[in-house]
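Lecture 7 notes: from sequence to structure.
We start with the chain below.
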Amino acid sequence: MKRVLFAPVAFAAVAALSLSACNKKSDDAAESTADAIESYSDTVADSMDTKADNMTNEASEAVLHDKADAVRDQGKHKADEVEDSVKKSN
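Predicted structure tokens for the same chain:
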């Protein structure tokens, strides 16, 4: 019974190693991760902007909008770092 289960597991491990060695796959994974980082930071920033729009104090509103812009910029920067790290390793 153990021998029968070993073959599929071994095959799956070899297939996974083969795919991880492929540059295209790592590029796709990096792009997917970068997209997720940007999407998350945009969602957080959008929420901050919505909260700022509902504020009555204009100065506080402006500060929160600036912070939302900073969150977007940081997300973009981190996403670029992820993509660049894969390009450098290839």
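Points to note: The helical segments are 2-21, 23-53, 58-89. The CA atoms of residues 34 and 79 lie 4 Å apart.
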